[in-house]
């Protein structure tokens, strides 16, 4: 694993995509994740921006991903509940059902061979498109290195 590559690319990507006004994402989380690896290799938070990830909450989220019951279960991030709205080969999207924001909130979860990448955004269709483009930019960097 080339941690220097991952960290360097995360920093470049995050400063242009996450957090401040006008950015497509309000938060992002990169989790070291290999469901086929030995059980002694625990998933860890590799990088985070815009949120303080709680390890217990992350563990519950990882269990949700491992179970794969996307259409019949929901997941929680920062005490917000999300239902999965679309499922694709290496990623899925969710909408927050506990949001108090009139435009709503969404999540994109992208899987690479070594990472689980969670991106959160505020808004609806246009915001979701901008968020997916931002997620794609970072995911392509990881996939080029087969990470």
UniProtKB/TrEMBL annotation:
InterPro entries: PFN (IPR048278), PFN_sf (IPR036140). It comes from Mikania micrantha. GO terms for molecular function: actin binding. SUPFAM superfamilies: Profilin (actin-binding protein). It comes from the Eukaryota. This is Profilin.
């Amino acid at each position: 694993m080339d941690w220097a590559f991952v960290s360097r690319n995360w920093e470049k990507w995050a400063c242009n995509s996450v957090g401040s006004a006008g950015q497509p994402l309000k938060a992002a989380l990169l989790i070291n994740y290999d469901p086929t690896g030995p059980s002694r290799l625990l998933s860890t938070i590799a990088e985070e921006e815009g949120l303080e990830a709680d390890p217990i909450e992350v563990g519950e989220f990882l269990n949700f991903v491992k179970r794969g019951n996307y259409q019949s279960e929901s997941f929680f991030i920062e005490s917000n509940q999300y239902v999965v709205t679309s499922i694709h080969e290496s990623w899925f999207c969710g909408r927050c059902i506990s949001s108090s924001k009139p435009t709503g909130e969404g999540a994109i979860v992208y899987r690479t061979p070594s990472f689980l990448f969670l991106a959160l955004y505020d808004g609806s269709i246009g915001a979701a498109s901008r968020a997916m483009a931002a997620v794609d930019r970072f995911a392509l960097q990881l996939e080029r290195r087969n990470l």
